[in-house]
Specification:
GGDEF_dom, Diguanylate cyclase/phosphodiesterase, transmembrane, alpha/beta, 25 helices, 4 domains, Alpha-Beta Plaits, membrane, five-stranded antiparallel β-sheet, Beta-Lactamase, eight-stranded mixed beta barrel, transmembrane helix
């Protein structure tokens, strides 16, 4: 109210001042202009008259002053002289020489001009006129201006008041509108007021959306300190708030608020002295949608495979990972052979369906950890990381090409398609992604030049090594298919009696001259990598059982036959059925069969291993733990497994007589087996000292070169004659072999 009264006084003062000026200034101005104008007119008339008098002075310089009649004639009013009331001639001292008319009453105005004789002033002429006409006009001007002044006074008195009232109404409406907006907006808005030190702030007002956003954490926000609202983000956000207050700018950041599990965009803007408006926009779903769009932008629309952009990113990430783990990456560039003929003959729709089918088959043929991408047209790129052996790249390449061996059924048509594959290795062939892809592309073209439907390495040296290993793999496949593998049998003896108590079947792959083509370990390693271990294992099992049955038919004293199982074989779902079928097919009692497993095979998944061992034990076969002490040697699991025999590894037996540590290990294993009611056998027995050491510690079952090397089936049969003991065949047979 006080402000309104003060404003009213100011308006009245301004209105009075304006009215006064409107009433006074125009008459004064008019009077000044009119009087000056009239004076100028009178002066001009005086100058004209002075010229006429000057002619008379020149004509009669001495007596002109006495020519009254002539002077009166000159002073008579003539047209153009105006309404002069008095016209007179005076000398320089002011004495009247001649005059005409009466001196006007009241205020007057006059025009004066000097009369010259040869350039010397001798008299002056005055024209005097009354100011009353001008004053009357000024009065009428004043009356008109007074009316205008009244209007100005009223206008200034009323219009600002109305304008102020309108502004106040507009301000109130605007405030209500923005309050409605503040209360109804979907974004959460929070007003904070800062103290003088700007170190903390207090929530002074919030809208309903803000209460809803923070309700799970704070039932009421008003009155809380900023440190309570923002928690661990307080220090970071206070720096932002202070920046906004000092620079008076609007700043936005994205944060995940503690306790809300939401991503919000925080916009901070000044809201008056010491106040900030903080707007929270929930962008959780928006960011999720952005990620989805980004994901769609990273995959091929036709096949759903990663596109070139995502491929480059994954390849760079794989290179960084392999750099840390010191492994290699293989990049396979696959181009379908004669794909253009499909498009040209059957149309692009069929071609697209074929590409989708190829993509599905390739995806199913590679590991989940590998990346397959479609880079355009009929080109695919596969990235395989974690390689420690170049041969693995050849195996993957073979798998990729074999995915295309079977025909594709597209729109009721049987289609055949092959591919040419180029391979580049990181870091052997290149150290950046683009060069790796380029090299694989070049290698792919080399594969096409060599006849298509094959793979080609970028590096010639690498290719030669891979080809060599591939040839070994191929030879092994042929050896399996052509029955070129063989079995030998190493006797297991009781050192106390010299009798054969068991045989171990061992795999061999020899050249034509009898020399080993590969060691058994190499055979198993390659077979496990290329999947041949399953058919080889089946062949070994059936062959060994068949040989055991043949010895029985020959009337030989057949002991138990130990057959090794690899870790891959042990995990094969059909193992139990394989053993059962082999026993039934050869009409063998399970007591004659012992299955040897390594610790690593059964400890890979011990719970599953226990179940499978129990199933095998139900068949009646013996179970032996091979190479005991070299793997996990977990006694807590060992007691749970139905193991019948423990084999002491040759690495401990070899130096048991000279190394106290190995001797202690051997003694411990023997004692462990005896205490757990298991049989124990030592392998790698090569000297008389080994025999004496083992016998002295309670181990009487032995296997090794001291007694016999692995022997072919026909020579081994001689050891199985009833009554045949070691002392009779050791010198005659084993030494000669």
């Amino acid at each position: 109210m006080e402000a309104r009264r003060h404003l009213k006084k100011v308006i009245m003062f301004l209105a009075g001042t304006a009215a006064l000026l409107a009433a006074v200034l125009p008459p004064i101005g008019y009077f000044g202009l009119a009087s000056r104008y009239q004076q100028g007119v009178l002066t001009a008339i005086a100058e004209l008259e002075a010229e006429h008098v000057a002619d008379l002075v020149i004509a009669a310089p001495d007596d002109w002053k006495f020519q009254k009649i002539r002077l009166d004639e000159l002073l008579e009013r003539r047209p153009g002289m105006g309404k002069a009331q008095l016209r007179r001639i005076t000398d320089l001292e002011g004495q009247v020489i001649a005059e005409k008319g009466d001196l006007p009453q009241g205020p007057s105005i006059k025009g004066v001009f000097l009369i010259h004789d040869a350039g010397v002033p001798v008299a002056r002429i005055e024209i005097v006129q009354s100011l009353r006409p001008i004053i009357f006009k000024v009065f009428f001007v004043f009356l008109g201006c007074a009316g205008i002044a009244v209007f100005v006074f009223r206008a200034i008195q009323v219009l600002p008041t109305r304008a102020v009232a309108a502004a106040q109404r507009s301000l109130a409406e605007s405030e209500q509108k923005y309050r409605n907006l503040f209360l109804g907006i979907h974004e959460a808005v929070l007003l904070m007021e800062f103290g003088d030190d700007l170190a903390d702030a207090t929530v002074v007002e919030v809208n309903p959306a803000c209460n809803h956003l923070f309700f799970s954490c704070f039932p009421s926000l008003v009155g809380l300190q900023s440190v309570q609202v923002f928690g661990e983000l307080h220090q970071e956000l206070m720096g932002l708030f202070q920046q906004v207050l000092q620079n008076e700018v609007t700043v936005s950041v994205e944060k995940e608020l503690p306790g809300l599990d939401k991503v919000v965009e925080i916009s901070v803007t000044p809201a008056g002295k010491g106040r900030l408006a903080i707007i929270f926009s929930d962008v959780t779903e928006h960011r999720a949608a952005e990620r989805q769009v980004q994901q769609l932008a990273s995959f091929d629309f036709l096949t759903g495979l990663p596109n070139r952009a995502l491929l480059n990113d994954r390849l760079k990430q794989a290179m960084l990972a392999c750099g840390r783990h010191k492994c290699k990456i293989a990049v396979f560039f696959l181009d379908l052979d004669h794909f253009k003929a499909v498009n040209d003959s059957l149309g692009h729709a069929v071609g697209d369906l074929l590409l989708q089918a190829v993509a599905e088959r390739l995806e199913s043929g590679i590991r989940q950890s590998d990346t397959i991408a479609r880079t355009g047209g009929d080109e695919f790129v596969i990235i395989t990381m974690g390689l420690h052996d170049e041969m693995n790249a050849s195996l993957v390449a073979t798998t990729i090409l074999s995915c295309l061996d079977e025909p594709f059924w597209i729109s009721g048509r049987e289609l055949f398609i092959n591919g040419s594959l180029g391979i580049s290795i990181y870091p052997d062939d290149a150290e950046d992604a683009s060069t790796l892809l380029k090299n694989a592309d070049m290698a792919m073209y080399a594969a096409k030049e060599q006849g298509r439907n094959r793979y080609h390495y970028y590096a010639k040296q690498l290719q030669e090594r891979a080809v060599e290993r591939l040839e070994i793999e191929t030879a092994l496949r042929h050896a399996v298919a052509d029955n070129l593998l063989s079995l030998v049998y190493q006797p297991q003896l009781d050192a106390r009696t010299g009798t054969v108590i068991g045989l171990e079947a061992l795999l061999r792959w020899n050249n034509s001259d009898g020399t080993p083509y590969l060691s058994p370990l190499q055979i198993i390693t390659i077979a496990e990598k290329n999947g041949l271990i399953i058919p080889i294992g089946e062949w070994v099992f059936h062959t060994a059982c068949r040989q055991l049955r043949q010895w029985q038919h020959e009337g030989l004293a057949t002991p138990r036959l130990a057959i090794n199982l690899s870790a891959v074989q042990f995990e094969e779902p059909g193992l139990v059925q394989l053993v059962q079928d082999a026993l039934q097919k050869n009409d063998l009692s399970p007591d004659y069969i012992e299955l040897e497993l390594t610790e690593s095979a059964i400890m890979h998944r011990p719970d599953d291993a226990k179940q499978k061992l129990l199933e095998l034990k139900k068949l009646g076969v013996w179970l032996a733990l091979d190479d005991f002490g070299t793997g996990y040697s977990s006694l807590s699991y060992l007691k749970l497994f139905p193991i019948d025999r423990i084999k002491i590894d040759r690495s401990f037996v070899n130096e048991a007589t000279t190394n106290n540590d190995d001797a202690a290990i051997v003694e411990t294993v023997i004692s462990l087996a005896n205490n757990m009611r298991m049989q124990v056998i030592a392998e790698g027995v090569e000297t008389q000292e080994h025999v004496e050491f083992l016998l002295a510690r309670g181990c009487h079952e032995m296997q090794g070169y001291y007694y016999a090397r692995p022997l072919p089936a026909d020579q081994c049969g001689k050891l199985l004659i009833p009554g045949f003991v070691t002392e009779k065949w050791h010198s005659a047979l084993s030494m000669s072999s």
